[in-house]
Amino acid sequence: LQIFEYNGSAVVAMVGKNCFAIASDRRLGVQLQTIATDFQRISKIHDRVFIALSGLATDVQTLYQRLVFRHKLYQLREERDMKPETFASLVSAILYEKRFGPYLCQPVIAGLGEDDKPFICTMDSIGAKELAKDFVVSGTASESLYGACEAMYKPDMEAEELFETISQALLSSVDRDCLSGWGGHVYVVTPTEIKERILKGRMD
Amino acid sequence: MECVFGLVGKGFAIVAADTSAVHSILLHKNNEDKIMLLDSHKLVAASGEPGDRVQFTEYVQKNVSLYKFRNGIPLTTAAAANFTRGELATALRKNPYSVNILMAGYDEESGASLYYIDYIATLHKVDKGAFGYGSYFSLSTMDRHYREDMSVEEAIELVDKCILEIRSRLVVAPPNFVIKIVDKDGARDYAWRQSVQDVTTAAV
């Protein structure tokens, strides 16, 4: 029983020109059986910060609830939204708190920081941050995603082109992973709008 | 092996469960009701370790009643499902319950709904769901014949198809099933499907 592969997931985030895109698959499975094809892995923390959690679905849900709680508390106290870098540090700290009994998730965090500069990072299940300038991936399809993103990515893409690139990278990667897929969910975030799109790929 | 499944129709939700109480190779009784009335408009079909099943569902039932007494209004199905998930999640890393739950309910504002909650506290709202070895047969049958907004007659026809499939293809198929329904008029027994009646005295 591989616990990180129990539910199946694929998550990717990419940086563009003053924008970012974050995408995930939609399958919720229990090992070989598919339970649902509309599982939400990406959550909005606030208009400029998104987090997508891959890994064990129960911990994805628990961690999401804890993070929303912490951010709402921060908003009440500081009277402003959290910066993406701060939020990433918060997630890292919360994960490390459970160092010897961890949440079995690997988050991918994407946000627009000061001056609309896009920020992405990923971390392992005990909070080791990995910042990147181009793209970050996570989940059972991560190896395929690394390859697809490396091949398709180029810097300073505009929102529409970024959407195409991340969608193609996601769909082609999940097609090589039996535990993830059944469509895609993509958010493309610019300083002025958030565009949410559902992808229809191979439904198998 | 315990078979539990359910689906949502037009203004109602149906759940069916087998009624065998099994310990190793012995069938203790074949009229064990595994679908509990959580309140007037909610049903909980549970499968898993017998002690945990009864204890946990009764605990949830009593807490749902307590909320109603304290606050004067009943919980919605979504709230009850989230409460159940919270209890399972809290217990998961201390003293886990081995209970899988399908929670069906009817609310005035949102209509009929079905929630899939597995033993490691993964929660998902679904149109059709199933647990156990029977799920390999019932989920596929439901995938083939299920449509949005089915009438009660059509839904019962589908439930009967699933029961037939389980009976004919599962090696230790449970002989009897109970079917319960919840709609605007409340939660209640719909029917029993018995192929083996309990024998009360030995034939002499």
UniProtKB/TrEMBL annotation, chain A:
The keyword Chaperone does not apply. Signal peptide: none annotated. Non-catalytic component of the proteasome, a multicatalytic proteinase complex which is characterized by its ability to cleave peptides with Arg, Phe, Tyr, Leu, and Glu adjacent to the leaving group at neutral or slightly basic pH. The proteasome has an ATP-dependent proteolytic activity. Component of the proteasome, a multicatalytic proteinase complex which is characterized by its ability to cleave peptides with Arg, Phe, Tyr, Leu, and Glu adjacent to the leaving group at neutral or slightly basic pH. The proteasome has an ATP-dependent proteolytic activity. It comes from the Eukaryota. This is Proteasome subunit beta. The lineage of its organism: Eukaryota, Viridiplantae, Streptophyta, Embryophyta, Tracheophyta. Gene3D superfamilies: Glutamine Phosphoribosylpyrophosphate, subunit 1, domain 1. InterPro entries: Ntn_hydrolases_N, Proteasome_beta_3, Proteasome_bsu_CS, Proteasome_sua/b, Proteasome_suB-type. Belongs to the peptidase T1B family. PANTHER family: METALLOPROTEASE TLDD (PTHR32194), PROTEASOME SUBUNIT BETA TYPE-3 (PTHR32194:SF10). GO terms for biological process: proteasome-mediated ubiquitin-dependent protein catabolic process. It comes from Brassica campestris (Field mustard).
Automatic annotation (TrEMBL), chain B:
One of its GO terms (cellular component) is nucleus. It comes from the Eukaryota. Signal peptide: none annotated. It is found in: Cytoplasm; Nucleus. The keyword Nucleus applies. CDD domains: proteasome_beta_type_2. Its main location: cytoplasm. GO terms for biological process: proteasome-mediated ubiquitin-dependent protein catabolic process. PROSITE patterns: PROTEASOME_BETA_1, PROTEASOME_BETA_2. Component of the 20S core complex of the 26S proteasome. The 26S proteasome is composed of a core protease (CP), known as the 20S proteasome, capped at one or both ends by the 19S regulatory particle (RP/PA700). The 20S proteasome core is composed of 28 subunits that are arranged in four stacked rings, resulting in a barrel-shaped structure. The two end rings are each formed by seven alpha subunits, and the two central rings are each formed by seven beta subunits. The catalytic chamber with the active sites is on the inside of the barrel. Component of the proteasome complex. PANTHER family: PROTEASOME SUBUNIT ALPHA/BETA. Non-catalytic component of the proteasome, a multicatalytic proteinase complex which is characterized by its ability to cleave peptides with Arg, Phe, Tyr, Leu, and Glu adjacent to the leaving group at neutral or slightly basic pH. The proteasome has an ATP-dependent proteolytic activity. This is Proteasome subunit beta. The lineage of its organism: Eukaryota, Viridiplantae, Streptophyta, Embryophyta, Tracheophyta.
